[in-house]
Amino acid sequence: MSALRPLSLAAVVLAFVVVVVGAYVRLSDAGLGCPDWPLCYGKVIPAASPDAHPVQKQWKEMGHRFLAGTLGILLLVMAAASFKVGRSRGLAAGIVALVLFQATLGMWTVTMLLKPAIVTAHLLGGMTILALLGWYALEQQRHSPAPEARALRASAALALAALAVQVALGGWVSANYAALACLDLPLCRGQLMPPMDFANAFHVVRDLGQAADGALLSNEALTAIHWTHRMFAFVAAGIILYAALRALRVARSLGIMLLILLGVQLLLGVANVAFSLPLPLAAAHNGGAAALLLALVVLNFISFRGLRPSW
Questions:
Q1: Backbone CA torsion sign across 98, 39, 287, 174
Q2: Contacts 24+ apart (CB under 8 A), 94-100
Q3: Residue 269, CB half-sphere, CA atoms under 13 Å: how many?
Q4: Which of 84, 93, 153, 292 has its CA 20 to 30 A from that of 275?
Q5: Which secondary-structure segment (H or E) carries 291?
Q6: What is the pLDDT of residue 291?
Q7: Collapsing DSSP states into helix, strand and coil, what is residue 43?
Q8: Alpha carbon of 303 to those of 45, 133, 148, 159, 295: distances in Å?
Q9: Where are the domains of the chain?
């Protein structure tokens, strides 16, 4: 069991890095820096490509793959240790299975030329792995009983569900390059409800930049994607705020952390629009979502187990 603690914590940290680097690769338009998988133009080490594709983008894409591969190896070691000591075996096996599926999604992301549904699913897969690793790591720590924490179960679960929806919407925005569809604040194109095409905006099975009928995706569709993510942010923020305020009564430090992370994430979202999506802020927004996810995983863990964090 002692070996599982450092292994699980290292896995959480590395998974967080993989999620943020994956967002950076996507946002820097390097998702197709290598058109094949798992190699890059048939090589392990990126080099000058026959179609003059910038080698910098190849390194970004392969760097992400190397990190993800390292995480996969670490998770196999962690699962083996988990089975050896007979602890959290089901969860460890589930995480490994999900990682294998995530690798398949990574391959499809490249071979299917960044189809929005696959890109979004790949993001959600990474976030899910991160959340499960957070839960797994918590199971390896010592906690004190706190039956009163069970009163937080409903608000904690609702907050986690709201964040999951918001992350999915954010992934859909990013996958469709709709982050700059509304350049003004607090309105969108000067209106509270600008002209929008929801039918094509949320038609899942289609190619990047195309509507269901194969025509180019309209500005109205991109606006609908961005506007929906922006509007649901108010809903998710309200639910998470309520859960954080309730958490203050049982786990004050966790409640304060949730409030800080929520505030920072909202500011990052506003800053991305105000400053026209600079790459560092856009990547930080993804990192903020991942950090908020982990904090809500902790809240759900202590509320459903009736425990108090050891820190």
A1: negative
A2: 94/132, 95/129, 95/132, 95/133, 95/136, 98/125, 98/128, 98/129, 98/132, 99/71, 99/72, 99/75, 99/129
A3: 25
A4: 292
A5: helix 279-305
A6: 98
A7: strand
A8: 47, 18, 8, 13, 12
A9: 1-141, 145-311
Q: With left for phi above 0 and alpha for psi between -120 and 50, is residue 277 left, alpha or beta?
A: left
SS3 call for 298: helix
pLDDT tops 60 at residue 155: yes
User: For the purposes of burial, counting CB atoms within 10 Å of the CB of 201, is it exposed (0-12), middle (13-18) or buried (19 or more)?
Assistant: buried
Positive or negative, the CA dihedral 121, 122, 128, 129 is: positive
CB 156 within 8 A of CB 243: yes
Residue 3 burial (10 A CB sphere; 0-12, 13-18, 19+): middle
Of 4-8, 142-146, 217-221, 239-243, the one with minimum mean pLDDT is 142-146
61 tagged catalytic: yes
- Measuring CA to CA, which residue among 235, 231, 228 is closest to residue 186? 231
Question: Between helices 279-305 and 4-27, what is the axis angle to 10°?
Answer: 150
Cis bond before residue 186 (omega within 30° of 0): yes
Q: 61, 139, 148, 220: which is the annotated catalytic residue?
A: 61
Amino acid, single-letter form, for residue 53: H
Amino acid at 153: R
Q: 104-123: per-residue pLDDT in tens?
A: 999 998 888 889 999 999 99
Q: Do 102 and 130 meet the contact criterion of CB atoms below 8 Å apart?
A: no
Q: State both tokens at 217.
A: 């995706």
Q: Is the pLDDT of residue 52 over 70?
A: no
The pair of three-digit structure tokens given for residue 250, joined into one six-digit string: 């049982």
